[in-house]
Fold this sequence. Notes:
Layout: E1 3-9, E2 12-17, E3 34-39, E4 42-50, H1 52-65, H2 74-87, E5 95-103, E6 106-113, E7 116-119, E8 123-127, H3 132-142, H4 149-163
Antiparallel strand pairs: 1-2, 1-8, 3-4, 4-5, 5-6, 6-7
Amino acid sequence: xxxxxxxxxxxxxxxxxxxxxxxxxxxxxxxxxxxxxxxxxxxxxxxxxxxxxxxxxxxxxxxxxxxxxxxxxxxxxxxxxxxxxxxxxxxxxxxxxxxxxxxxxxxxxxxxxxxxxxxxxxxxxxxxxxxxxxxxxxxxxxxxxxxxxxxxxxxxxxxxxxxxxxxxxxx
Length: 171
């Protein structure tokens, strides 16, 4: 199962992902399903659900496009994400991204897939873990009066552990 989720909070953004673990309980791949990048006027944390090799290609291309001396406003950043994702070879599994980023406008969360960049107002889940259980847990978070980064981190760990107990599929 692959799952990534993101929460937008007044004081920041939280992303949580599972680890790729084989049926025998060992790590299939050692790397995490997140990356971070910084540019002159912003920074981002990005997670994925989908094809691993596409993710690695995306990360390599991202590091070439955005560097410490690159200046990019929100529109340019969205354009970079969309162009890099669309430039990846098409695979059966595909790939989707959740991206939390900070610029002068404050914290933002977006979902990026083949259809483009979609702003997220509260929380989102991507991957095979996008199930009725996942939607129920997200609704519980959204109804919670606690929306700080600290609370979202705790909720993210709980969410991943609950969702990882089984493999669910919802188109």
